[in-house]
Amino acid sequence: MPRKRTPTDQEIEALADQFRNLWRQGDVMRPWFRQHRDMLLGLVHGDWSWASVGQALTKAGITYRTGKPWTAKWLQSDFSRAQMKLRGYARKHNPGGSTAAKHPNPAPIATTAAAQPAPAAPRFKPASFRAPEPPRPLSEAEHAEIERNRRLTFGPSDREE
User: pLDDT per position in the chain (161 positions), as tens?
Assistant: First the structure.
C-alpha cells in the first residue's frame, strides 16, 4: 500500500474546523461515524490517511471521554465497528416480527377461472383411554437376555462373586 502524503498543520487545522462544525457537544462517536461515513471514507480514499484524520479529530476535540488521541489503527477499527449492523435493530423497529417487512412485495396468489373446492380437512377420531393391563409374564429366554445385558453393562453382581 503506497504511503500517503503527510498533511501540513494548516491542512489538519482546516479539517479539524470542518469536524468542529459537524460535531455537537454530547454526540456519541459510533452514530456520528455512521452519519458521516461517506465524508470520512472520501477523505481516506483520497489524500488523507487514517492517522491524519485521527489527528484532525483529536485537534477538533472529537474523542471519547478519556481525551486519548486517535491512532490510525484505533480510528479505523472503531469506524469499522460503527458500520456493522446494529443488533436487535430490526426487532425494535418491526415489533411482532411480521414477515411483511421482510417480504414487502409478496407474490400474487394464482387464481383459476373455475375455482376448485378445497379438500375437506382431515378428521380424526377422538382419543380413547384403555384400562391399564398388568404386564405379561416374561419367558425364560427373555429373563436370560435381560440378565446377560445387565451383566455386560454393569458387570457381575455382588451375589455372583
Answer: 568 888 889 998 999 899 888 888 888 888 888 999 999 999 999 889 999 999 999 998 888 888 888 888 999 888 888 888 777 665 666 655 544 445 455 444 454 555 566 777 777 777 777 777 888 899 999 999 999 999 999 888 776 65
Q: Which residue shows C-alpha cell 483520497?
A: 46
Domain boundary assignment for the chain: 9-83
- Rounded CA gap, 35 and 141, in Å? 79
What's this model's pTM, rounded to 2 decimal places? Answer: 0.52
How wide is the angle at C-alpha 19 spanned by C-alphas 18 and 22, nearest 5°?
Answer: 95
Identify whether the C-beta of residue 82 lies closer than 8 Å to the C-beta of residue 42. Answer: no
